[in-house]
Amino acid sequence: MQKMIVSDLDGTLLDIEHKVDAYTAATFQALAAQGVQITIATGRHFLDVKGIRESLGVSAHLITSNGARVHDPDNNEIFAENLEPELARALLQPEMSAGTLLNVYVDDGWLVERDCPELVGVYYKDSGFNYQVVDLKAHSGEGIAKILYIADHAALTAVEAKIIDQYGDEVYITFSADDCLEVMAPTVSKGHALTEVLGRLGIDAAHCYAFGDGQNDIQMLAVAGYPFVMSNASPKLKTAHPHAPVIGSNNEHGVAEQLRKIFTIE
């Protein structure tokens, strides 16, 4: 009976400095040696997550951009879904993005409307992933996996309400953090992508162990037979999965500790 472990990154598998610690890496390497399949599921870009997988030291499928992209352990793309270009162009206009830092993920990188070195220093200093400053309001809308709006939560809830009012059925919209609102195609989610990976590997979802902390993990945990919620998780995730066990925080190696108990790793 083959088993799958799927984990979010920031706030879940990564520590407070957004790094893979040695204890977690050793845990995942021991699981891989037992033949357990591993998947990383994150809002981050594929080009960024490849380096994090290397830090874990395991072979793993990568669900990135909240499910808009899926790659196999050899980096072959096996699923991709973009926003409709006309819709993407509308979402990139100032009337929608005013008061936020506008970001876009495309296959070959990360586009922003203005310089934001503070983001690189916090999240990407180890991977080397970086952005390109472009005039996003003039972007064609082609090939966009997701659009990110970064601002304080109150400003983003207003943007969220505006997008839902105008385009509710045409998008999947979620918060990956209180200060980051993300918009993808309506068929995109970590849960849908996980279903694709499980089907490809012939693994029953009942034998899947999933770990998350954010609103964008709701669908993923719903797919898995064994969902686990971090103690530092979003209240919306805890409300959506009231019966899921709450485990230690990301800074307490919560995922690694739980997996060592489940799979009897010393």
Q: What share of residues is helical?
A: 25-40%
Largest sheet, spatial ordering of strands: 5-4-3-2-1-12-13-14
In DSSP terms, counting alpha (H) and pi (I) runs of 4 or more, how many helices? 11
- Our measurement of the CA-to-CA distance between the termini, rounded to an integer number of angstroms, reads 22 Å
For the sheet with most strands, the description reads: 8 strands, mixed
Q: Radius of gyration over alpha carbons? A: 18 Å
Question: Structural class of the secondary structure composition?
Answer: alpha/beta
Question: How would you explain this protein's 3D organization?
Answer:
With 266 residues, the chain is an alpha/beta fold. The chain has two domains: 4-80 and 188-262, HAD superfamily/HAD-like (Rossmann fold), CATH 3.40.50; 85-184, Hypothetical Protein, Haloacid Dehalogenase-like Hydrolase, Chain: A, domain 2 (2-Layer Sandwich). Helices cover 35% and strands 24% of the residues. The protein is built from eleven helices and 14 strands. It has helices at 9-13, 22-33, 46-56, 85-91, 94-97, 117-123, 153-167, 190-201, 218-223, 235-240, 254-262, and strands spanning 4-7, 37-41, 61-64, 69-71, 77-80, 101-106, 109-112, 131-133, 144-150, 172-177, 180-184, 208-212, 226-230, 246-247. The strands form two sheets. Strands 5-4-3-2-1-12-13-14 form an eight-stranded mixed beta sheet, with helices on both faces. Helix 2 (22-33) packs parallel to helix 11. The protein is globular, with a radius of gyration of 18 Å. Its cofactor is Mg(2+). It comes from Deefgea tanakiae. This is Cof-type HAD-IIB family hydrolase.
